[in-house]
């Protein structure tokens, strides 16, 4: 039997990339503490299911009236009233039906499901519903009826929302019979709010990533582990104007429109400290850094690079080719400073230096950059792998970076400091004198970015495969 016969698409953005879907006509238990996003997950399941799969849905709320439900949904960009007009949605406020007891409530729910042919049902929440019944037996009767008549006979996939932590202490009836158990939690990551979704149980499926980052920005969205897309054709064959952002006033573009909106670009004459999680590959952290460098160069300017450890000139060329830098442009406008005697392919844009004699090397690079600025009339961008300098020159290398910073400011250029935590004190020394401090990290396979200076929210980095440069979207983790 094929997956699409066993499972239905959840239509929750990102979740169907991590699981095959929910069991068709199954019972799904969604748990979490107040504020973890349970109601919003239920809303998204119903709303997206109606829009994308054409499946009618019913939302049964124990506490929230229809008016309050619609108000919350509209703030998240979900217009359920339009779905009502099309016969794809109905909200039932449970207290209205509870006065006559469980039997009346069951009959009304069944009648509405059959009347509209509902394929998705939310009960929010089973915890509150239990409190409405004086006799616990009535709750069990309701659940058993739901299972036998709604879930099994009518093939209506049902989400039960439950308050608190799942599968802890004495287990309830619904936890035993559920086809899937999902837990939502809202915690903190390095001082910033972070939401997580954990798949504790999913019958008939192997789950590779059971813990995922999620956000309630415009409804619940699951952030899948990032994959670096392969381009269908070299980016330099595409017109740069199809993706190249303009420079913001008084600044240089980050190459990422979402980041430009958040921080206003990189101020002219500034130094930007990038703190990089050691678990990241160069391809991963360069989705934030490379767009800015390529954008800078494509506007007729030059790049001066001392690569981070483990980064060869060929890798610098390959990564920038994703963003419109042809081989000819790379040789003309990228100037790579590399240790003498290194076993690398010698190109005309590779300049050998002795990083152990850091003072002479610093002077050589500064004079080279000033010459380019005066010759072209354009600023330069200096892209410095600090770990390579410190490994060869020690603390003296940091002093030379501070000197270079003054020159960058004077000539209205731009400098990036790429710092990997091989020595924690490096960040402590450089952070106070940097103009900006951004951190690129990862959690549950999700690439994350946030600003320390200036302080920003946590953003999830998402890439979409396509024919042109892989410019990331930054999704607020709210």
Summarize the helices and strands and which ones pair or pack.
Elements: H1 3-6, E1 7-8, E2 22-23, E3 27-32, H2 38-53, E4 57-61, H3 66-75, H4 80-85, E5 89-93, H5 95-98, H6 102-116, E6 120-124, H7 126-132, H8 136-153, E7 157-163, H9 173-177, E8 180-189, E9 192-202, E10 211-215, E11 221-223, E12 251-252, H10 257-263, E13 266-267, E14 270-276, H11 282-298, E15 302-306, H12 313-321, H13 327-333, E16 334-339, E17 350-353, H14 358-376, E18 380-385, H15 386-393, H16 396-410, E19 414-419, H17 425-430, E20 436-443, E21 446-453, E22 459-462, E23 473-476
Parallel strand pairs: 3-7, 3-8, 4-5, 4-6, 6-7, 14-19, 14-20, 15-16, 15-18, 16-17, 18-19
Antiparallel strand pairs: 1-2, 8-9, 9-10, 10-11, 12-13, 20-21, 21-22, 22-23
Write a structural description.
With 478 residues, the protein is of the alpha/beta class. The protein folds into two domains: 3-223, P-loop containing nucleotide triphosphate hydrolases (Rossmann fold, 3-Layer(aba) Sandwich); 235-476, P-loop containing nucleotide triphosphate hydrolases (Rossmann fold, 3-Layer(aba) Sandwich). Helix content is 36%, strand content 26%. β10 (211-215) and β11 form a beta hairpin. The longest helix is centred in the C-terminal third of the chain and has 19 residues, at 358-376. The two termini are 39 Å apart.
């Amino acid at each position: 039997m094929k997956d699409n016969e066993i499972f239905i698409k959840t239509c929750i953005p990102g979740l169907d990339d991590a699981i095959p879907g929910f069991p068709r006509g199954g019972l799904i238990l969604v748990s979490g503490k107040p504020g973890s996003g349970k109601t919003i997950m239920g809303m998204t399941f119903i709303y997206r299911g109606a829009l994308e799969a054409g499946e009618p849905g019913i939302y049964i709320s124990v506490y929230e009236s229809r008016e309050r439900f619609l108000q919350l949904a509209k703030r998240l960009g979900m217009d359920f009233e339009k779905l009502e007009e099309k016969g794809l949605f109905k909200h039932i406020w449970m207290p209205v039906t509870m006065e006559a007891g469980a039997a009346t409530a069951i009959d009304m729910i069944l009648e509405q499901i059959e009347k509209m042919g509902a394929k998705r049902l939310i009960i929010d929440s089973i915890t509150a519903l239990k409190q409405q019944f004086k006799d616990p037996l009535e709750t069990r009767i309701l659940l058993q009826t739901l299972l036998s008549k709604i879930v099994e006979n009518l093939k209506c996939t049902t989400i039960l929302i439950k308050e608190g932590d799942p599968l802890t202490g004495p287990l309830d009836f619904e936890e035993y019979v559920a086809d899937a158990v999902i837990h939502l939690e809202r915690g903190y990551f390095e001082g910033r709010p972070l939401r997580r979704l954990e798949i504790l149980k999913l019958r008939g499926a192997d789950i590779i990533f059971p813990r995922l980052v999620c956000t309630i920005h415009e409804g619940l969205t699951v952030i899948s582990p990032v994959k670096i897309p392969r381009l269908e054709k070299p980016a330099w064959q595409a017109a740069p104007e199809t993706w190249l952002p303009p420079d913001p006033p008084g600044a240089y573009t980050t190459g990422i429109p979402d980041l430009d909106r958040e921080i206003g670009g990189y101020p002219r004459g500034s130094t930007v400290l990038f703190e990089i999680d050691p678990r990241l590959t160069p391809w991963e952290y360069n989705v934030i850094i490379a767009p800015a460098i390529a954008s800078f160069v494509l506007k007729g300017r030059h790049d001066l690079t001392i690569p981070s450890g483990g980064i060869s000139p060929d890798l610098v060329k390959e990564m920038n080719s994703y963003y419109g830098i042809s081989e000819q442009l790379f040789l003309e406008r990228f100037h790579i400073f590399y240790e003498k005697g290194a076993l690398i392919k010698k190109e005309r844009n590779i300049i050998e230096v002795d990083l152990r004699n850091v003072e002479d090397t610093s002077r050589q690079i500064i004079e080279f950059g000033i010459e380019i600025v005066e010759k072209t009339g354009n600023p330069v961008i200096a892209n410095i792998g600090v770990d390579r300098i410190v490994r060869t020159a020690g603390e003296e290398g940091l002093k030379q970076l501070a000197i270079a910073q003054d020159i960058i400011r004077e000539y209205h250029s731009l400098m990036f400091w790429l710092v990997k935590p091989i020595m924690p004190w490096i960040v402590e020394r450089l952070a106070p004198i940097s103009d900006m401090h951004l951190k690129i990290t990862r959690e549950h396979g999700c690439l994350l970015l946030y600003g320390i200076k200036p302080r920003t929210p946590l953003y999830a980095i998402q890439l979409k495969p396509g024919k042109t440069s892989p410019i990331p979207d930054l999704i607020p983790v709210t």
